Amino acid sequence: MTLSSAYPAYSASGLPWVPRLPEGWQVLRNGRLFGHRVETGFPDLPIMEVSLRTGVRVRDMENLKRKQVMSQKEKYKRAAKGDIAYNMMRMWQGAVGPAPVDGLVSPAYVVVKPYDEANSSYYSYLFRTAAYMQEVNKFSRGIVADRNRLYWESFKQMPSLVPPRPEQDQIVAYLRAQDAHIARLIKTKRDLIKLLTEQKLRIIDHAVTRGLDSSVALKASGIEWLGEVPEHWEVQRLKNVANVVLGKMLTTEAKGGDGDFKPYLRSTNVQWIKPDVRDVKEMWVAKAEMAQLRVRKGDLLVSEGGEVGRACIWNDELPECYIQNSVHRVAAKPMMLPEFLFHQFFAYGKRGRFNAIVNRVSIAHLTREKLVTVPFTVPPIEEQKAICRWISDECQPLDDAITRTEEEIKLICEYRDRLIADVVTGQVDVRGWQPGPDDVVDDAALAALGDENENVTEEEDGDGED
Q1: Does domain 10-186+408-460 have CATH number 3.30.572.10?
Q2: Rounded Cα–Cα distance for residues 175 and 457 (Å)
Q3: Residues 6+ positions from 355 with CB-CB distance below 8 Å
Q4: DSSP for 311-364?
Q5: Rounded CA gap, 99 and 171, in Å?
Q6: Is there a common fold for 10-186+408-460 and 234-378?
């Protein structure tokens, strides 16, 4: 069977986002397919979270970088195995999926239980298609667009496709088998990126701690993990070589006095090498705080949470931008080149130096008080320039290979999205597909479909009153 084959016959669906459906498929509102589950008071169940690409999963409470104090677990909602849970504010991004076990989800989630005619895994695939997520936007409501929520009352009115139940099951089996192949391919490419990054790290780490001249005399740095450094270099704490400002909690509402709505950066916008400004929203910034919170060309942006210490250099990616309380703005003083400082952040971050000093009362936080005490090497400025040039030349082939591999992963993910959309909307007929010996589905391996930089946290979910 060729998987590019269409169904033998189609009829009009009445839906703009999928004009034709295979004969025998229906269109029903979600309220005919799912019931609303609102059950609280199950504090012994595991906490679950959402991945934008792979759905609902059990939260890793042993990973200290993600550990969180759940002081109000009684308010968390029970999702039975097979229920669909979605984040009201993020379903338009794909924050939806079936619960793999009985567990708890944030109050910011809606939990729906499937009726017999609905395979929740099929609907999880459908709900994460680009066309359906656009429909989610239309049915969501809120005071401002950035705070739109898809409440149960709106979700149950949304129309969905309904293939016969055996076809839903077949579609899920086929897509899970394809996901397994895709996940293995993505993992292979991510393993390559890790090897290339480790090579790059060795180059940078040695250059910023020992310099380029192997014959130069060394001296003890006084820092156990830093070891010896060139005799003519200084070792200074960050507060002596840069001005460090931690952003403030901003608000979506205009406050009294002078101020304006401005684009702002969160820790998720801070990615290694360069910032990710594809999803920059606006918040209210008081005029009195603008000078302190505004990012300037050459500043380093440093993540205060998540992957603590993750950094990039700001090169005016946006005309005017500000930071909130999960981002440090680090402005190098004249004795330190921003590029040289960034290379040290990269080496320290990848070697876990920042993670070793964070505050861990709840989730990891790299406070300003901790950050400014971190020691950095300070060669003469001309030597810093020479080291930066050398690093750039040595790392360029590695950077090119990493970029190429990341683009390949992106294309693979785009192919997967297109395949899912075609199959779940009936544009491709997979009824005749039978699994082969290589179509082995490993749930653990499917995790590779997720985005390694994804940072969806309960703190961003809101209070979730529904």
Answers
A1: no
A2: 28
A3: 65, 308, 309, 364
A4: EEE---SSSS-EEBTTEEEEEE-TTS-HHHHHHHHHHHHHTTTTTTT-B-SSS-
A5: 19
A6: yes
**For residue 382, which amino acid is it?**
E
As a whole number of angstroms, the distance between CA 354 and CA 350 comes to 9
Question: 3-state class of 88 per DSSP?
Answer: coil
CATH T-level assignment (fold) for domain 234-378: Adenine-n6-DNA-methyltransferase TaqI; Chain A, domain 2 (3.90.220)
3-state secondary structure 363-394: CCECCHHHHCCCEEEECCHHHHHHHHHHHHHH
354 CB neighbour count, 10 Å cutoff = 23
Residue closest to 213 by CA, chosen among 351, 380, 353 = 380
Q: With contact defined as beta carbons under 8 Å apart, do 248 and 325 qualify?
A: yes
Q: pTM here?
A: 0.82
Decide: 136 and 96 in contact? Cβ < 8 Å: no
> d(Cα 181, Cα 179) in Å, to the nearest integer?
5
**Using an 8 Å Cβ cutoff, are 201 and 350 in contact?**
yes
Q: pLDDT tens track of the chain, all 466 residues?
A: 445 689 999 999 999 999 999 999 999 999 999 999 999 888 889 888 887 766 788 876 554 334 444 556 778 999 999 999 999 888 888 889 999 999 999 888 999 999 999 999 999 999 999 999 999 988 988 755 556 889 999 999 999 999 999 999 999 999 999 999 999 999 999 999 999 999 999 999 999 999 999 999 999 999 988 999 999 999 999 999 999 999 888 777 777 678 888 888 988 899 998 898 887 888 888 888 889 999 999 999 999 988 899 999 999 888 889 998 899 999 999 999 999 999 999 999 999 899 888 766 556 789 999 999 999 999 999 999 999 999 999 999 999 999 999 999 999 999 999 999 999 999 999 999 998 888 777 777 777 777 655 544 443 444 344 3
User: Domain ranges in the chain?
Assistant: 10-186+408-460, 234-378
Cβ proximity of 180 and 400 under 8 Å: no
Interatomic CA distance for residues 281 and 262, integer angstroms: 8
Run of H or E including 179: helix 165-210
Residue at 273: amino acid letter: I
Q: How far apart are CA 22 and CA 193, in angstroms?
A: 42
The span from the CA of 22 to the CA of 338, in Å, is 59
Under 8 Å between Cβ of 174 and 423: yes
Report yes or no: 149 and 72 within 8 Å, Cβ to Cβ. Answer: no
CB 229 within 8 A of CB 377: yes
Angle among Cα 328, 329, 334 to the nearest 5 degrees reads 135
